[in-house]
Amino acid sequence: MKKQIIKPFLFVIFLIISIALFSFSSCDGPVDPYDQLKPGRRDYVWEVDTIDVESTYINKIWGSSPEDVWAIGSGGSFDRSIWYFDGDKWTTDGFTRNILPHALWGFSNNEVYIGGLDGKIWNFDGKDWKQFAELEKEGTNFISFENIWGAKPNDFYAVGAGPDNKLYANHSVITHFTDNKWEILDTKALKGNVVHFYINNSDQKKYFRLVKIGGIIHPDSTIIYEYDQVNFKKLYSSVETKGMQADISMIGNDVFFILGYEIATRENNQFKTVLNVDNPNFYQRIWGRNSKDIFLFMIDGLAHYNGGDLEYLFYFNRTSQTQIYGAALFEKEVFFTIYEASTDLKYIYHGKLK
């Protein structure tokens, strides 16, 4: 008899407590996902590899895992423009290919793409690199691809520019591969090199960064656009110089905007500040896993924002014109491509969390 009486009684008590807890937790409204993020860790152990290649720098890097990373650099020798890291060391196969790689993106270890400076797209199928496409746009005699990005193998974009009548890379190019075919999108009167193109996951809005190159009227300048497949809406513009230039970066599933010293996201057609960088060494280039785990290129090294403060992870040996051009980030490992202009040395900084 006791057991039959106690069980309903305990159930009623449990129900009352549960309702009280629910009411208490609901009074403050929905929990902000940002607040649930843990600050990004900083306890990296760094290894530095020197890439032996002349007359170029390693400008793009991508990987499916820390044991499957690709890096490219246009110019220099045709047989040393594509590099691969297998988890142990960086190598190149030494095979001469008629490709000047400048754009790199992938989806798996057997689905990797490279865009060249000659309108060509190459594909790695897990065994070898093969030409995948050769694209042309009316009004320009060749396309120089700056970047490739997409969410899946049958839905990605390759962007860049062709030469204008003064041979500047200002003939804007946006191409889309979907349903197993390429479409050259109409960029209308748009002028400039399309250097980054991303789709924000939450609202599926498309954003890209344009760089106008050369001349007195348009000194090298940066513009951020929103694109709806028909129209281009200018959101922000600035001169392309340290401290002022604009850029965009894909961090997690969100597009982040670099507006001079401000890092922001975009919600309800408004910029929402994530961080105002209070350091004049910031060079308007970022990579990250989420809004509390962002890496910042500084003129004297690499810094990290963990949602609370900014701290350097390492400093450059030489600070004169040293650049970080790209990053590949994984759960516990990170890779950064670094060019030391004063010595013409090319490095890959490889960090591992302890």
CATH topology of the largest domain: Methylamine Dehydrogenase, Chain H
Order of helices and strands: HHEEEEEEEEEEEEEEEEEEEEEEEEEEEE
Largest sheet, in brief, is: 4 strands, antiparallel
Under CATH, the homologous superfamily of the largest domain reads: YVTN repeat-like/Quinoprotein amine dehydrogenase
* Overall number of structural domains: 2
Describe this structure in words.
The chain has 354 residues and is mainly beta. The chain has two domains: 30 residues; 323 residues, 7 Propeller (Methylamine Dehydrogenase, Chain H). It is 8% helix and 53% strand. Strands 1-28-27-26 form a four-stranded antiparallel beta sheet, with no helix packed on it. It has a four-stranded antiparallel beta sheet with strand order 2-3-4-5, with no helix packed on it.
